[in-house]
From TrEMBL:
It comes from Aquamicrobium zhengzhouense. It is an enzyme of class 5 (isomerase). PROSITE patterns: PG_MUTASE. It catalyses: (2R)-2-phosphoglycerate = (2R)-3-phosphoglycerate. The keyword Protein transport does not apply. Substrate binds at residues 9-16, 22-23, 61, 88-91, 99, 115-116, 159-160. Keywords: Gluconeogenesis, Glycolysis, Isomerase. Pathway: Carbohydrate degradation; glycolysis; pyruvate from D-glyceraldehyde 3-phosphate: step 3/5. This is 2,3-bisphosphoglycerate-dependent phosphoglycerate mutase. It comes from the Bacteria.
Amino acid sequence: MSGTLVLVRHGQSEWNLQNLFTGWRDPALTEQGHGEAKKAGGLLAAKGLKFDIAYTSELTRAQVTCQHILDGVGQSDLNTVKNLALNERDYGDLSGLNKDDARTKWGEEQVHVWRRSYDVPPPGGESLRDTGARVWPYYMHVIQPHVLRGETVLVAAHGNSLRALIMALEGLSGEDVIKVELNTGVPIIYKLNADSTIASKEVVEG
């Protein structure tokens, strides 16, 4: 029996548009972001997907994305679990700063290390490994059991929390996972075998 896990990064937020470090800050989706999330719902509906349960973070941009998708598949009232384990990586002192301004303050190389290394956190924030340390147990103990029972599960979250989840799913190294790019509002559908290995993976771009 194979279950289905659908991962979606939230639609474009106002701070994505403004090129700001966001982390645990809580900006709303842009008009484009709402459109991306609604499109994701339409794409998943076209595939005939129905969910048994949905998970999202405690941040508005992910929750609204999740709701648009559920509306799109005709499941507006589906049980949806919100948990900070799925929150975006905490960018600490960088949160709210323009990325170009941060490069001016700390230097291009240092900011690149904070953004793209696996285990070097920005000041006061989390590395990708730190983010994984909260995502992995939550996935293993809370989300994965539903999938392994053959259910269809939606996770609407963030670039870095989903990177960490994909790292566990696909067995990626710290070096490989930092190269994973996730576009806003684009669903990734995994079919998992009963032993948690991946039967198939599909990136759904309309």
